[in-house]
TrEMBL record:
GO terms for molecular function: N-acyltransferase activity; UDP-3-O-[(3R)-3-hydroxyacyl]-glucosamine N-acyltransferase activity. GO terms for biological process: lipid A biosynthetic process. It comes from Candidatus Fukatsuia symbiotica. This is UDP-3-O-(3-hydroxymyristoyl)glucosamine N-acyltransferase. Catalyzes the N-acylation of UDP-3-O-(hydroxytetradecanoyl)glucosamine using 3-hydroxytetradecanoyl-ACP as the acyl donor. Is involved in the biosynthesis of lipid A, a phosphorylated glycolipid that anchors the lipopolysaccharide to the outer membrane of the cell. Homotrimer. Keywords: Acyltransferase, Lipid A biosynthesis, Lipid biosynthesis, Lipid metabolism, Repeat, Transferase. The keyword Amino-acid biosynthesis does not apply. Its EC number is 2.3.1.191. The active site is at residue 244. InterPro entries: Hexapep (IPR001451), Hexapep_transf_CS (IPR018357), LpxD (IPR007691), Trimer_LpxA-like_sf (IPR011004), UDP_GlcNAc_AcTrfase_non-rep (IPR020573). Gene3D superfamilies: 1.20.5.170, Hexapeptide repeat proteins, MurE/MurF, N-terminal domain. Transmembrane segments: none annotated. Pfam families: Hexapep (PF00132), LpxD (PF04613).
Length: 355
């Protein structure tokens, strides 16, 4: 069970470069973390939005993380920080009790004698490590994984169960890949010869930078000739499809269910909303935000927030909207007719509209 004094927690945060000031009893012992509405005595919570400060009256937590602006409304021990949500993320890391994917090298693991294994590496049951693989120090590989020939995994990276890394895939340092993900499968490359599909071997690989997190059951295809490249600090949610030769810039965030077509280039510090679909063979600039279910068919050259799609409506309203969309060509023709009449004779515009 986790247990830590508030004063010691502040010291741990300082080691992470986060300044926190205790207002109240620094000797209180924290045993858990919870949301404001469910926290109990002994737990720490956080207030990230002043609009919710009325919850401080009924909150049962022993400690709350908040800003100096909200401190006058707090009757319990507080940690005063600049950004409570960021502080919460760091505190959750400190208090995290998630077990490691593996401990030690399981007897059932199959490790090629031609593989290079670093110091303090753990490999789970029934995992296969093929020849030429290089595992850095402190790498942890969960049960049932497959690491193909000449693949490389950098220092401190972790793979959960049933991850497949195809041959020559490169994973950087301190990455986290969740269960069921497949990195380096063939891209969707075929040539059509008189109606018959001829497979194009995918001769590139996948290069993943440092501090990258990849969600469960996400697939990242290897390049056809050049490599598929995922930059440092990229975070990718569950069940995403990233096609061959895609390049994703540093610190971009990709929510669940996103589909990216081949040879797409995405800039740095972008945010891609869930279930978005992005066409290939084009570029998206740095610092672009695409809201959920966006359909991106053309390049985006300027930073900003972009959206598409029809928001949910009651079925009756949606049917009317759909009918209008289906009639948009007729409406456009009528509009052009009106414009032509106005250009010829402005006085006839009312007559044109009536026809």
């Amino acid at each position: 069970m986790f247990s830590m004094r508030v004063a010691d927690l502040v010291q741990k945060l300082a080691e992470k470069g986060l300044h926190a000031q205790v207002q109240g009893d620094g000797n209180l012992v924290i045993t858990g973390i919870a949301s404001m509405h469910s926290a109990q005595a002994g737990q720490i919570t956080f207030l990230s939005n002043s609009r919710n400060r009325e919850q401080l009256v009924t909150c049962q937590a022993s400690v709350v993380v908040l800003t100096e602006t909200d401190l006058p409304f707090c009757q319990m021990t507080a940690l005063v920080v600049n950004n409570p949500y960021v502080a919460y993320a760091h505190i959750a890391q400190i208090m995290d009790t998630t077990p490691q994917p593996a401990q030690g090298i399981a007897p059932s693991a199959v490790v090629s004698p031609q593989a290079t294994i670093g110091r303090q590496v753990s490999i789970g049951a029934n995992t296969v490590i093929e020849s030429g693989v290089i595992l850095g120090d402190h790498v942890i590989i969960g049960a049932g994984c497959f690491i193909g020939k000449n693949a490389r995994i950098g220092t401190g990276s972790r793979l959960w169960a049933n991850v497949a890394l195809y041959h020559e895939v490169e994973i950087g340092q301190y990455c986290l890949i969740h269960a069921g993900s497949v990195i380096g499968a063939d891209g969707f490359g075929y040539a059509n010869e008189s109606g018959k599909w001829i497979k194009i071997p995918q001769l590139g690989t996948v290069q993943i930078g440092n501090h990258v997190e990849i969600g469960a059951c996400t697939t990242i295809d290897r390049g056809a000739l050049d490599n598929t490249v995922i930059g440092n600090g990229v975070i990718i949610d569950n069940q995403c499809q990233i096609a061959h030769n895609v390049v994703i810039g540093e610190n971009t965030a990709i929510a669940g269910g996103v589909i990216m077509a081949g040879s797409l280039k995405i800039g740095r510090y972008c945010q891609i909303g869930g279930a978005s679909v992005i066409n290939g063979h084009m570029e998206i600039a740095d610092k672009v935000v695409i809201t959920g279910m966006g359909m991106v068919m053309r390049p985006i050259t300027e930073p900003g927030i972009y959206s598409s799609g029809v928001p949910l409506q009651p079925n009756k309203t949606w049917r009317k909207t759909a009918a209008l969309v289906m009639s948009i060509d007729k409406i456009n023709q009528r509009l052009k007719k009106v414009e032509r009449h106005i250009d010829k004779d402005p006085a006839s515009s009312d007559d044109a509209l009536s026809k």
